[in-house]
TrEMBL record:
Keywords for this protein: Hydrolase
Any one GO MF annotation of this record: hydrolase activity
Keyword Hydrolase set for record: yes
Name this polypeptide is given: Alpha/beta hydrolase
Residue intervals of the AB hydrolase-1 domain: 64-256
Gene3D superfamilies: alpha/beta hydrolase
Domain of life of the native organism: Bacteria
Keyword Hydrolase: yes
Annotated source species: Microvirga terrae
PANTHER family found in the cross-reference section: HYDROLASE, PUTATIVE (AFU_ORTHOLOGUE AFUA_2G14860)-RELATED, MONOACYLGLYCEROL LIPASE
Length: 276
């Protein structure tokens, strides 16, 4: 098992890293990185899970998010932070965005093409599906009202396997008495979700044409947040993109089908750059 170390970039952006050397991979984590109260132990568990999707032998950085986001928190402010980290600390890298992190990764690649050598959007697209957007709006409403139980209920059917959906609901019920300890400040959750909900990502996808990096879009045909139409639209507008869809899988594809997803990612990273 590869060793992991934790630290802070810009004195506020948490990260977990493993390995050293050239050709780094930078991972922009999903929304769980700001929905749950961040701890080094939780960040390391996330990093170990994510590392299973990536080839061994390359340095990996898994970035979290500002624990005290400002009132103007947006995808743009997150991109500015990540670009500064790459420019000053890590260097140009392969960038993988998972779910929420995919919004950041795609914008980073479009705005700073010199910093992104290859781009991977894992269970993510440039916009939500209609169902996904409604779910995000409900999450924001629950978090705004401090209804953390209602917030977690939105995640009750994200797995393909029924027993895992049952397990996650059971776990939520067990944790109800300590939700305030394990969940982040509702204001932080709202600002994180508003960073994507506050923009009309689907209105004009033309900015995707500025992504110069060879791109892999990995999605699932039963993902409630990013449907096939959104995934196809994303891949179609990026000049050098290929789309790999997993049939009958859901948003938890990277967890339930980690080996299969890793095979696709490793094949993409090992291949020569391709034309769109």
């Amino acid at each position: 098992m590869r060793p992991f170390e934790t630290g802070l970039f810009l004195d506020r952006i948490p990260y977990v890293t493993s390995g050293s050397g050239p050709d780094p991979i930078v991972v922009l984590n999903g929304g769980q990185a700001f929905v749950r109260r961040p701890t080094p132990a939780r960040a390391q568990r996330d990093a170990r899970r994510i590392a299973r999707l990536l080839p061994a032998g390359r340095p990996v950085y898994v970035l979290g998010y500002d624990p005290v986001p400002s009132a103007d928190h947006s995808i743009g402010t997150i991109v500015t932070d990540v670009a500064r980290i790459l420019r000053d600390e890590i260097g140009p890298a392969t960038v993988m965005g998972i779910s929420f992190g995919g919004f950041v990764a795609a914008r980073l690649a479009a705005d700073h093409p010199d910093l992104v050598k290859r781009l991977i959007l894992m269970v993510s697209a440039h916009r939500f599906s209609p169902e996904g957007r409604r779910s995000i709006d409900r999450q924001i409403d629950c978090a705004w009202r401090g209804d953390l139980e209602g917030f977690l209920d939105e995640f009750g059917l994200v797995f393909r396997r029924p027993w895992l959906n049952w397990l996650i609901r059971w776990r939520f019920r067990r944790e109800r008495t300590r939700l305030r300890e394990t969940m982040n400040d509702p204001a932080v959750i709202v600002r994180g979700l508003n960073a994507v909900a506050g923009e009309d990502f689907g209105g004009d996808p033309s900015w995707l044409a500025y992504i110069a990096a060879p791109t892999l879009v990995v999605g699932a045909t039963r993902d409630p947040f990013f449907d096939v139409a959104a995934l196809q639209e994303t891949a179609r507008h990026i000049p050098s993109a290929r789309l790999h869809l997993f049939e009958r899988e859901t948003h938890m594809l990277p967890v339930e089908r980690a080996r299969a997803a890793a095979k696709v990612v490793k094949g993409f990273l090992a291949a020569q750059p391709f034309a769109g």
